[in-house]
Amino acid sequence: MSRNPMRKGWCPSLHAPMQTHDGWLVRVTPDLEGLSPAQLSFLAEMAARQGNGRITLTLRGNLQLRGFQEEAARRFALQAAEAGLGLADPQRESRRRVLFMSPLAGRDPACAPDTLALAREIEAAVTASGFDWHPPEKFGVVVDGGGLVPSGAMRADVMLRHESGSWVLHHGAVSQATDRQGAVALVMECLEASCRQRMEGRALHKASPFTGRRPALMGAFLPGCFGVEAVLGEISSQSCALLSATGATTRVTPWRGLILESRIEAADLMSDPQDLRRALIACPGEGSCHQALSPTRKDALSLAPALLGRSLHVSGCAKGCASRGQSNVTLVARETGYDLIWNGTVADRPVETGLGIEDVRRRLHRDDPAGKDRKEESRP
């Protein structure tokens, strides 16, 4: 297995499924207001009948089903569009999926009341048949109404934030206050400008990283809002069917979470902010990706009790697809075992290499300051 994993350089979409080691992967971008019971039932059935029985929640609020045969993956786009899970026109759908909105818009009284209406107006403008714009990979437009989810918690290339009673557009170094009607026009101008920048070979503006603290949207946190997060960002088709059976709309957050209208219990849904599995990040791993060198998800779950409050990222190869950010503990699989990185990313230099999973477990206990203190206190 190569030590230099191949980077494909593109992301799958509804009309562009991607071949993986365990079959074809398809991706769905939910409506701004979430998934209806009928749509959840459709996804559960497709995952169970055509895929591997699992549904992944991405950090951009999308859903992925994998394990499809090629013909089934090619049919999926039109089937999903018929279920209201996207647009049948590939170009219009590619523009629709760049738009994000505060996940509590319309439910959080502290979120700007016109957040959803503004997002819908931008969606209509962006997906209009006469608008000829091809979005770059991972380009994003956010309508950020604030409230319980703080402003800036959602990153994007173009941001509209509600600040002091007005909408303020942020695009690179540019900030401009406007009303709701003007906001739509400003966003469209930014999109056209980004197209010119790309054609001229100039770098696109990027948003500055969020430095605040996002609240855990878990359990009953607002009237009519019950938050859960998917264990390692993935749920089973059975859990998806349970969500459908509630008869209510389920909203997907950009943080691999779901906002429900009532409590639901499932093994792969976490509602307790103290759940140890919240600290875990892992890619699909060996058996699902041909470049992965370890069973990342299994290893991550086995290490959860030893983390003692630390975050863990387990990557099956050097690419680090599951996370580009920093974790307290990062493991990168190699042919000879895991590289161990403290308080860094997959790109940082490891402190040890060639570790088995039990070696890692011992390192976690050995290098835990709280554990050392407990040992000293227990001495006679």
TrEMBL record:
Residue ranges occupied by any Nitrite/Sulfite reductase ferredoxin-like domain in the UniProt entry: 19-73
The keyword Signal appears for this protein: no
Matching InterPro entries: NIR_SIR_4Fe-4S (IPR051329), NiRdtase/SiRdtase_haem-b_fer (IPR005117), Nit/Sulf_reduc_fer-like_dom_sf (IPR036136), NO2/SO3_Rdtase_4Fe4S_sf (IPR045854)
Keyword check for Cytoplasm: no
Listed SUPFAM superfamilies: Nitrite and sulphite reductase 4Fe-4S domain-like, Nitrite/Sulfite reductase N-terminal domain-like
Record's keyword terms, sorted: 4Fe-4S, Heme, Iron, Iron-sulfur, Metal-binding, Oxidoreductase
Protein name (record): Nitrite/Sulfite reductase ferredoxin-like domain-containing protein
